[in-house]
């Protein structure tokens, strides 16, 4: 009798985990559809661009609006060894999808052939050798529900890094929205 009770509890727990996973997959699918819909409209949406501080080579944020409603933002931070772009897709002011791409140059952008020769370096800056790392963040009701990191690996929700990243993304989003409002 006790063995049947334990098996029943295990069955209930497994059924709950499966249902949660299925619900999350449905949410991810809806997020991807909404992202695609907004992304396809970016070129025809109204835009507002503001310069940002905090980057050695400049930075900016662009807001994408439809009928006065902010649907997306794109922040770009330039440095001498690369740049980072982060796209925020919003619903009612809250992020539901964030795409971050980090572009790393093979050498600093000012490191031309002459600089390479002076340093006995066989390689100068070459934009064709830029590498790109990409992180994808899926959110629902201001909660990070999935993070695919730059190695295309899903980050464990139980990790401290995951929890810290969720708060960081919400703070970034609010800060950029504030910049666009000023």
TrEMBL record:
It comes from the Bacteria. This is DUF4468 domain-containing protein. It comes from Xanthocytophaga flava.
């Amino acid at each position: 009798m006790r063995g049947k009770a334990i098996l029943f509890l295990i069955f209930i727990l497994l059924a709950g985990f499966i249902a949660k996973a299925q619900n999350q997959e449905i949410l991810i699918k809806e997020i991807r559809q909404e992202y695609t819909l907004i992304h396809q409209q970016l070129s025809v949406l109204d835009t507002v661009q503001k310069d940002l501080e905090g980057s050695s080579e400049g930075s900016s944020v662009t807001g994408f609006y439809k009928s006065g409603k902010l649907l997306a933002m794109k922040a770009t931070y330039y440095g001498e060894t690369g740049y980072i772009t982060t796209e925020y897709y919003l619903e009612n002011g809250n992020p539901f999808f964030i795409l971050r791409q980090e572009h790393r140059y093979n050498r600093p952008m000012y490191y031309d052939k002459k600089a390479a020769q002076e340093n006995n370096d066989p390689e100068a800056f070459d934009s064709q050798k830029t590498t790109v790392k990409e992180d994808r963040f899926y959110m629902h009701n201001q909660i990070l529900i999935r993070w695919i990191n730059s190695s295309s690996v899903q980050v464990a929700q139980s990790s401290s890094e995951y929890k810290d990243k969720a708060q960081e993304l919400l703070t970034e989003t609010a800060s950029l929205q504030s910049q666009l409002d000023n």
